[in-house]
Amino acid sequence: xxxxxxxxxGPAGLSTAFWCDELGLDTLLLERASEVGGQLHSVFNPxxxxxxxxxxxxxxxxxxxxxxxxxxxxxxxxxxxxxxxDLRAKTISLESGEQLRALAIVIATGVRxxxxxxEGEQEFAGKGIIDSGSxxxxxxxxxxVCVIGGGDAAAENALLLAEVCPTVTLVHRGKRLHARxxxxxxxxxxxxxxxxxxxxxxxxxxxxxxQAVEIHRREGLKPFQLAVRGxxxxxxxxxxxxxxxxxxxxxxxxxxxxxxxQETSVPFVFAIGDVANPQSPTxxxxxxxxxxxxxxxxxxxNKGTR
Length: 306
Ligand SMILES: Cc1cc2nc3c(=O)[nH]c(=O)nc-3n(C[C@H](O)[C@H](O)[C@H](O)COP(=O)(O)OP(=O)(O)OC[C@H]3O[C@@H](n4cnc5c(N)ncnc54)[C@H](O)[C@@H]3O)c2cc1C
Description:
- Strands 1, 2, 5, 6, 7, 8 and 19 form a seven-stranded mixed β-sheet that branches. Strands 10-17-11-12-13 form a five-stranded parallel β-sheet, with helices on one face. Strands 14-15-16 form a three-stranded antiparallel β-sheet, with no helix packed on it.
- 41% of the residues are buried.
- It contains six helices and 19 strands.
- By secondary structure, it is an alpha/beta fold.
- The mean pLDDT is 94.
- A hairpin with a 2-residue loop joins strand 3 and strand 4 (53-55).
- The protein has helices at 11-22, 58-70, 133-136, 152-162, 181-187, 283-300, and strands at 2-7, 27-30, 47-50, 53-55, 75-77, 82-86, 91-94, 99-107, 111-113, 129-130, 145-148, 168-171, 193-196, 200-206, 210-216, 224-227, 230-233, 237-239, 269-271.
- It binds flavin-adenine dinucleotide (FAD).
- Flavin-adenine dinucleotide (FAD) binds at residues 7-13, 30-33, 38-40, 42-43, 45, 47, 49-50, 82, 108-111, 153, 240, 273-275, 281-284, 286.
């Protein structure tokens, strides 16, 4: 029996684990990936908006946390697959057959990339549809590409790809891009980049590799095909909640509903970070939520050194 089991080791889960450890709680942190850090592994932009810390990217930020990780006493299990969880009973069954129990559970499972759900999306994954502009752009160097989406991730990837690709077409269904100003200002003067707003990609076409995308620009106009060899999809995120969503209150988008103490509709089950906070998906909010949950749990369990 642990005091606290935390599911997910992104910034939110790590912050709760540090705080729980500091407050003297017996803490177990479970992570399905091989490394802790969550989305930090996908952040290639400089992190300049976390108070007191600047890092050139997510991995560099994680390196700043490493000494604290090494000096903490909480248990941390990576590559751990959860089979099922009973939130009311506070029990977790692992794929390995092991059963875990805690007095409190903290859900810190974050978000994942949303899929388009169009023809060709599955078929051409890894055959022209790439996962990351920064890691895989060399595969598409010299080729025409299409980036789908209108937020920070889409804009940032369009800029990265435009460094090595002759043309980058950014297709966004909204009227205006909602990427941060810094990115939008760099898109406009870039001659390699064309932005289609109020447009949707309806199909990804190819043979053994992507050859084109079908774009529908406006009602009444016929869709047309744009020849491209690469596609990158960045249309937002959705919360990792489906495997326990029927056990607590979630909102219409699948995010966990919490009160001001980060507690869910199930007593002693807390949710923190992006999975419970669509308004502020940031490292600051994730770590702050983590501290709140730890403090509340320690106080309810009558523990805590400060
Ligand atoms: C490209 C990009 C740039 C960004 N730039 C910034 C920035 O400049 N500043 C900023 O503040 N924020 C930035 N962010 C956002 C920031 O990274 C997130 O807000 C933050 O990582 C959220 O932390 P989290 O712990 O809630 O979730 P996540 O980081 O998503 O971590 C969730 C963890 O839970 C694990 N998990 C999920 N399901 C399970 C399960 N069933 N069992 C076990 N483990 C599970 C996942 O593997 C993951 O490790 C950026 C994000 C991206 C993608």
